[in-house]
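Thread: quick sanity check before group meeting

JM: Hey all, I'm pulling together slides for Thursday and realized we never actually wrote out the predicted structure for the chain we discussed last week. Dropping the sequence here so it's in one place. If anyone has concerns about the input, flag it before I start.
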Amino acid sequence: MRCQVSVLYFARSAELAGLRSETLSVPREITSLQLWEEIVKVHPRLAVIRDQVVFAVRQEYVLLGDQVLVLQPGDEVAIIPPISGG
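JM (edit): ok, ran it. Output follows.
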């Protein structure tokens, strides 16, 4: 079963995706790595930041990997690349 989630792009991920937010249909039960792969299918340019990106799902950080996420319709998924600062 699939559900609609709101994907938010920040910093470099927004530049690569060409937008700041969108709604995507993804499987309700999915690992964080599979979720990343679903997003990269839509925005292949994001692949270059794979090893640097962190997700926030419902405002909680999630590393890419085998962690299973159970998503609900309307959940927010934020794509957060490293942010340099001084």
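AS: nice. The radius of gyration is 12 Å. Strands lie at 2-9, 21-27, 29-31, 54-57, 60-62, 68-70, 76-80.
JM: adding both to the slides.
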